[in-house]
Design a protein that fits this description.
Elements: E1 7-11, H1 17-31, H2 39-47, E2 54-60, E3 63-75, E4 79-89, H3 98-112, E5 118-120, H4 127-135
Parallel strand pairs: 4-5
Antiparallel strand pairs: 1-2, 2-3, 3-4
Helix pairs in contact: 1-2
């Protein structure tokens, strides 16, 4: 990012749903995962009266550069936390600390809202993400396993 380019991070709104869906598609492609969520799902679940998640959009000179999607979690041992479901920066905007800015904003929200911390998952093959979170002083809970019942 040059001195002429300006980074802004703002909460997403209903009008951002098509952009958000496009960014999520880019992340799914990067992770080689199928994408089943629709714009209608995102609109209903993220921007209705009972929103299930929140999103921050990073923009460079008004062009979408990335996003962070997060929601409350709860630990019986620690209380309320935030779960960071996605932190994604588009390929052409990487290496400009946009991911760090998004992560820092989510962490600041967690502090403001009295959360014990920010939890997240990192795919074991994604060494770039692993290195990124290590630089953020994240603690890796290697003795825990993620389980999904379908």
């Amino acid at each position: 990012m040059s001195a002429m380019e300006m980074l802004t991070i703002r909460p997403a709104n209903l009008g951002d749903v098509p952009t958000l869906r496009s960014l999520i598609q880019e992340m799914a492609d990067y992770e080689k995962l199928p994408l089943l969520i629709t714009e209608e799902d995102l609109a209903k679940d993220g921007f209705g009266l009972d929103a299930k998640f929140r999103v921050l959009i990073a923009e460079v000179d008004d062009e979408p550069a990335g996003y962070a999607l997060f929601f409350y979690s709860y630990s019986t041992f620690q209380g309320r936390g935030l779960f960071l479901e996605d932190l994604f920066v588009r390929a052409q905007f990487r290496k400009h600390r946009i991911g760090q800015a998004l992560f820092s904003r989510v962490a600041a929200i967690a502090l403001q809202e009295g959360c014990f911390g920010v939890m997240l998952h990192v795919l074991d093959w994604n060494t770039t993400a692993t290195q990124f979170y290590r630089k953020m002083n994240a603690t890796f809970l290697d003795d825990w396993r993620t389980v999904c019942l379908k």
